Amino acid sequence: MDNFRFYCPTEFIFGKNTVEKTGQWIKKYGGTKVLLHYGGQSAVKSGLLAEVENSLKNEFIEYVKLGGVQPNPIDTMVYQGIELCRKEQVNFILAVGGGSVIDSAKAIAAGVPYAGDFWNFFEKTVTINRALPLATILTIPASGSEGSENTVITKKKEGLKRGLKSQYLRPVFSVMDPTLTFTLPNNQTAYGAADMMAHVMERYFTQTQGVDITDRLCEAVLLSIIKEAPVAMKEPRNYEARANLMWAGTMAHNGICGVGREEDWASHGLEHELSALYGIAHGAGLAVIFPAWMQYVYTSGIDRFVQFAVRVWGIEFNGDKKETALKGINALKEFFSSLGLPVNFVQLGIQSNDIDQLIHTLRINTGGQFGAFRKLDMTDARAIYEIAAKG
Ligand code: NZQ
Ligand code: ZN
Prior knowledge:
Distance between the termini: 35 Å
Mean pLDDT: 97
Largest sheet: 6 strands, parallel
Strand content: 5-15%
Radius of gyration: 20 Å
Strand order of the largest sheet: 1-8-5-4-2-3
Bound molecules: 5,6-dihydroxy-NADP, zinc ion
Structural class: alpha/beta
Number of strands: 8
Number of helices: 16
C-alpha cells in the first residue's frame, strides 16, 4: 500500500426531510448572501427549489438565483455566475442538482476570488488557493461531486472538456435526501449507476500491491450498485434502493476507495471526449468505453481481472485466467445492457469515422500519454475507440 493523506471535510446530511434545514446549515458555515445555482427544470418542477428558497427566507438569508445549467456544463455559464456573484457580493454558493450544477458551482466558487480567467485553473497554469464556500443539495446519484474535490467543465468554443482537482472544491456540506431522486427517469438512474461503478473501477484496476482493504471496499460498493440499480429502476419510489444508491455514489468518488493505491482514469479521459463532442450523458459514454478499455488492457494485470470476475460477478475460477477475466468483462457488459445502457458507438449515435476528432482533442487534453494500470498513447486510444465502436 502506498503512503497517503486523506482529508474529506464535507458534512453529509442524509435522509428524509433534510432539505428544510438548509438555511440553518448555510448559517452554520457563514453564508449570508447566497448564489442559488440549479439546472434546466427538474428542481423547479418538483417544487424543490421553492422549498430551498423557503428555508433560506426562514433564516433571513439573502440570495440570488442562476438556473439553466445544462448537462456537461459549459464555461459561458461559469463566467455568468462569476460576474453575478461579484456584482451581488455573494459569499456562499448553493448548488441544487446533479454533477453538472455542482461542477458549475465549483468553478464559479474558484473563479470569484481570482482576478484572472478561471479557465487558467483548467489549463493548470494557475493553482487554486482559495474559493467561496459551497454546498450542495444532490438530486441525482452519479458524479459523486457532492463529496469530491473535482469539477469538470467544457470550454464550448474549442469543445474541450476538462477536469480540475483541488481541496478548496470540496463542498462544506451536502444535503442528500433519497426521496429527491424518486423523479429520476430510468435512463438517468442507469447513467448514474454506470458512472458510480466507473468511479470505483478507475480505482480498483491498479498495479499497487497489498491493498486488500480498498479492494474489499470497492467490491462492496460495486455489489451494492449491482443489487440496487435494477430495483430502483423497477420501483422508482423504493426508498431503501434509492438511499443505498445515493450513498454508493458518494463512497465511489469521495476518495475513500482509492487511498493508498495508484488510480487509473484512462476510461474517464476517453469518455470525456465523447460527451464533449456529442453532448451525450457521461454515464452512457462510460458504459461503452469501460468494457472496451478492459478488453484492451486486461493482459497487463490478469490476476486483478480474475479477482474482479470472481468476487464481483461470482464467476467460478476454472484455472484458466484468460477465460475467467473475459467472463468478468462480459458480465459487466451484460449488466450495463440489462439496465438499457448503450454498448457501442452506434447506440450512442456516434459513427466510427469520428475517431480522428476524438483523438485530436484527447491528445490536447492528455499531452499524448494517459492511464496508469497500463500507460497508453494515442495508438492505444484509437484501438480502444475502435473496440468501443463495435461494442
Ligand atoms: O437540468 P435538470 O432539469 O435538473 O435535469 C437533470 C439533467 O437533465 C436531470 N435530473 C437531475 N436530478 C433530477 C433530474 N431529473 C429528474 N429528477 C431529478 N431528481 O438529470 C440530468 C442529468 O443531470 P447531470 O447533473 O448532468 O448528471 P450527473 O450528475 O451525471 O452529472 C454529469 C456531469 O458530471 C461530470 C460529468 O462529466 C458530467 O459533466 N462529472 C463530475 C465529476 C466530479 N465533479 O467529481 C466526476 C464524474 O466522473 C463526472 O465526470
Ligand atoms: Zn464519472
